[in-house]
Amino acid sequence: MRNYISELRGLVGKDVNIYGWVQNSRVVGSLIFLEIRDVSGITQAVLFKKSNQELFEKLKKLNRESVVRINGKVVESQSKYGIEVQISEVEILNESMAPLPLGIIDPVEADLETRLENRFLDLRKPSKLSIFKIQSTISNSIRNYFIENGFIEIHTPKIVAAATEGGTELFPVQYFERKAFLSQSPQLYKEIMMSAGFDKVFEIAPAFRAEEHNTTRHLNEFTSIDIEVSFHDDEGVMKILEDVIKVSADNVRDKNKKELEILNKEPLNTNYSFKRITYSEYINMARSKGFEIKDGEDLSTPILKGVGADLKEFYFITRWPRDLKPFYVQPYDEKYSRGFDLQYGELEITSGAQRVHNPEVLIENLKKKGLNPESFSFYIKAFQYGMPPHAGWAIGLERLTMVLLDLNNIREATLFPRDRTRLTP
Ligand code: ATP
To answer: Which parts of 110-154 are beta strand (E)?
Structure first.
């Protein structure tokens, strides 16, 4: 029988078996103290030399981060854990090599490169584990929200023939005798599912972007949470997005108290209604802060930083100029579209839109963007035989994790980041 370390407080006086890593050991006179860590927490185990001299000598020589099973009795103690395990037996399940390429309990953290190079060790730190326990809460909260609200989970192909937006940010792959690409977004397929009559769909899956730049908010492979909903407009799916963000933040606050404490983070307050700021209003805000920006120009990073600094909250930027949004975004009028972004401060978390559903408008938009409708024939076909009006969005799971935990680099929210230079581990 296995006991998790987090259960031990309730087992004072009982005999337990804990399994974990020896993160530290300390000899004090005739006592040896081991710090044992498992997925649920850390505790102390202690052995009196006179109770088992041979084991005492063995433990003294045991390398840090070796994996052990410890059998013993839980007793109250003066240690910072309030309890400790009085060792009766130690089974060394696997001894670690020494020295460690990365310290787990060093007070000064190694640089990010070294940490990522030795990610399996880095992730043993309770603070790193906490980020991913919280990320699991976030993705599961979102998944549960969708299931409870009648969405169908879908899985679309990640090897595709054409670019979603005709962009150049694609990784080519050899598909037998043809050239194919890794999917940058499930956009086209999730829209086809509207024509297929699935009504509301979601997908949580990797997206690949061959973006050359190496920033603290871009990865070359990220987890995209996508939805597409029939008979909805931009405002309809913005409402869903607001709910999804609030549900995830509430669940993190309620279910991850311990992890937030380990990370020394306050739960993010989302208890307000997310502002809707039009692109035109946003450029006026930028101008009033001294930025020069022409109507129709994209919002640069300095502008988003400048205006976003006063908006440390979630807000939507709506009614983007048509020229700045992809061909599948529904026009609002001659100049503006029904495309929106969800921002937190300067950071974009989501982009979404009501989509074009009329095939003629779609073909016209493709041509306007300099794309060849022929390459999109499998997609356009779905519009020619009864495509309902629809809308949707995509959130990057890592970016959402960054915001909810106030992390300064997206790599902190990614187990094994893929960036311009990193392909292993
Ligand atoms: P950005 O302008 O920040 O590069 P984008 O406009 O290319 O993002 P979309 O294609 O609209 O982003 O993707 C939707 C969401 O997916 C983004 O809001 C973001 O959360 C996430 N995302 C997009 N590209 C990346 C990336 N390279 N790394 C991590 N997340 C990304």
So the answer is: 152-153
